[in-house]
């Protein structure tokens, strides 16, 4: 068992966060919504910019670091449901100056955003999950020296509504990352930047699926399986990939944990440093405010040992809201203390928390 030291960093109710070196001092900082928290102790809070607040949400479901304008400072990629716009915020390099925000594209309501270097260029592409729109991604345009120009090129890769949920998984094992959606998967073509639509395989229905949907060979049979949380209902599952007699692909659904709801964000990380990945997730507190099944249940954060498909749950935090913490729409896992054990930064409508991973508990 691992032991964690919990600390509330702020009562601010933003649901996304990230860890990166904001001020260039070589020490990781924490970014969440309208503020960044200076490392290594994260007690000093700096203003970024105003973030729109509407219906008990903030229009900020991602705070991902990317040097968009090529000035050597990491900026922020963001976007959310209400603003319907993918945006970036320019890091001014001065803690006393507010960050400017620039629109990338009015792409429709964004559930949240994930990032993947789909073409191997060294810079991740931006993949917003826009449930009511076709799946698209955005590539940073770089100059001859490889520096960002502040501009992006959009690639639409599917038709019809993409649905709730998205992930990056090499389904076929051919070395190319495919895109998992709630109703099937998009197969990456030989040339992902050609502008052609990706082939859609409607092989499953994952419901109000998490972002991300994770890919991992859970049972060790050489085929990539899926790990899926229900973002707005009860349930955490894995889908076993198999082959039918005719050679077609099959997906067998297995329960991991049905005791909780609103598993919106998932990570696979070697949390205990034993050489094997653990599944980390938790309840997104008031994901649809109070409208989801289980909305008033206790909240918490957990990790699971995979055990070849016999998942074993370990509780990091659990209890009533106000005492325990859940996981927001985009939490972050990274070693902040230098002890080699990854820590957890958890944002949400219940505040911003740091769970310092103290390592394995003796005895």
Would you write up a description of this structure?
This protein has a domain at 1-9 and 217-333 and 349-362. It contains no helices and 30 strands. It has strands spanning 2-10, 18-20, 29-32, 35-38, 44-47, 53-54, 57-58, 64-66, 75-78, 86-90, 100-105, 112-116, 125-129, 136-142, 148-156, 166-169, 178-181, 184-187, 199-201, 214-216, 225-229, 234-243, 249-261, 263-269, 278-283, 299-305, 312-319, 332-334, 343-346, 352-360. The strands form nine sheets. The chain has a four-stranded antiparallel beta sheet, with no helix packed on it. Strands 2-3-4-5 form a four-stranded antiparallel beta sheet, with no helix packed on it. A four-stranded antiparallel beta sheet has the order 8-9-10-11, with no helix packed on it. A hairpin with an 8-residue loop joins strand 2 and strand 3. The mean pLDDT is 97.
Main sheet, how many strands, which sense, barrel?
A: 4 strands, antiparallel
* Estimated share of beta-strand residues: 35-45%
How many DSSP-defined strands? 30
Helix content: under 10%
Q: What overall geometry do the principal axes of the alpha carbons give?
A: globular
Please count the helical segments: 0
Order of secondary-structure elements = EEEEEEEEEEEEEEEEEEEEEEEEEEEEEE
Distance between the termini: 9 Å
How would you state the average pLDDT, rounded? 97
Cross-sheet strand order for the largest sheet = 1-30-29-28
Low-confidence stretches: none
Helix/strand structural class: mainly beta
Gyration radius (Cα, Å) is: 20 Å
